[in-house]
């Protein structure tokens, strides 16, 4: 069986519980067709770069899939008919990543405190402006 990473965007006005129900629905489709779903990540409600069907935000979700191609095709076919799904993308991969995805790592990095408490390292204090050239 082939390995896939699948990301979909759900409308902004659906709840997190409804997004989880969508994930479970499509997980059932994959499993019914002889595949299995590994890691599932909910990236939350994020702003879109451009509006899609009058939506400025969307719920993002990632699924790692180990399934035959017909199972993935059937899941994508069902997603086309669901009005809660704005976009989806499935990519074939050599191996699934271990640990959190880059999006979750970014969220962890963004949660760190910012501002004046940054460590300047061993650069020392800044010189006055007239001393710099």
Automatic annotation (TrEMBL):
GO biological process: translation
Signal peptide: none
GO MF terms held by the record: small ribosomal subunit rRNA binding; structural constituent of ribosome
Pfam families for this protein: Ribosomal_S6
Keyword set includes Cell membrane: no
Keywords, ordered alphabetically: Ribonucleoprotein, Ribosomal protein, RNA-binding, rRNA-binding
Domain of life: Bacteria
InterPro entries: Ribosomal_bS6 (IPR000529), Ribosomal_bS6_sf (IPR035980), Ribosomal_S6_plastid/chlpt (IPR020814), Transl_elong_EF1B/ribsomal_bS6 (IPR014717)
Keyword flag RNA-binding: yes
PANTHER family linked to this entry: MITOCHONDRIAL 28S RIBOSOMAL PROTEIN S6, SMALL RIBOSOMAL SUBUNIT PROTEIN BS6M
Function: Binds together with bS18 to 16S ribosomal RNA.
Entry protein name: Small ribosomal subunit protein bS6
């Amino acid at each position: 069986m082939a390995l896939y990473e699948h990301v979909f965007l759900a409308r902004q006005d659906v709840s997190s519980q409804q997004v989880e129900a969508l994930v479970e629905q499509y997980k059932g489709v994959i499993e019914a067709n002889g595949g299995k779903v590994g890691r599932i990540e909910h990236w939350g409600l994020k702003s879109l770069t451009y509006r899609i069907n009058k939506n400025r935000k969307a719920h993002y979700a990632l699924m790692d899939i180990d399934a035959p191609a017909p199972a993935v095709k059937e899941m994508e076919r069902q997603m086309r008919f669901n009005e809660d799904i704005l976009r989806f993308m499935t990519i074939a991969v050599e191996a699934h990543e271990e640990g959190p995805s880059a999006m979750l790592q970014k969220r962890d990095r963004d949660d760190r405190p910012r501002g004046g408490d940054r460590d300047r390292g061993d650069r020392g204090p800044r010189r006055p402006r007239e001393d710099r050239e």
